[in-house]
Amino acid sequence: MPDAIEYLGLSQTANTHFRIDGKAVSSSTVFRWMTKGVRHNGHTICLRHTFIGRRIVTTSEWVKQFLNEIEQAARIVTPAAPISVFAPNRSSSRKRRTEAQRRAALRKAESELIDAGM
């Protein structure tokens, strides 16, 4: 008779396989890796899983495959995105306008259109 596969729940997977500085990652992190995956160098890598009834589970072998795939994706070198010298990214330095500032700008634009005869 073949060996039975030992399935691991979310908490057990987090506690057994994913410990950082002695602390387990959250079981919700493991769930996210299963359902949405990890993006690395343009690749989305998901932790293989299955359902037993309503429980989502994985195996130690699938965890090892997941970690190996992440390691392989990390080795892939992708060229850097080209940087445009004509359109610098200023969105991070821009402050959002308040509602009052928006209304004032709208009134000003409307008056300029009226003055221009439009």
Keywords:
alpha+beta, 118 residues, 7 strands, 42% helix, single chain
Q: How would you describe this protein?
A:
With 118 residues, the protein is of the alpha+beta class. It has a domain at 7-75. Helix content is 42%, strand content 17%. The chain has four helices and seven strands. The strands form three sheets. A three-stranded antiparallel β-sheet has the order 1-7-6. Strands 2-3 form a two-stranded antiparallel sheet. A hairpin with a 2-residue loop joins strand 6 (50-52) and strand 7 (55-59). Helix 1 crosses helix 2 (27-35). The longest helix is centred in the last third of the chain and has 17 residues, at 99-115. The radius of gyration is 26 Å and the shape is elongated. The model has no long low-confidence stretch (mean pLDDT 84).
Q: Tell me roughly what share of residues is in helical segments.
A: 40-55%
List how many beta strands DSSP finds: 7
Return Rg in Å.
26 Å
H-E string: EHEEHEEEEHH
The number of helices is: 4
Q: Sheet bearing the most strands, described?
A: 3 strands, antiparallel
- Percentage of residues in strands: 15-25%
Assign an overall shape.
elongated
Low-confidence stretches: none
Topology:
Elements: E1 7-8, H1 10-17, E2 19-20, E3 23-24, H2 27-35, E4 38-40, E5 43-45, E6 50-52, E7 55-59, H3 60-75, H4 99-115
Antiparallel strand pairs: 1-7, 2-3, 4-5, 6-7
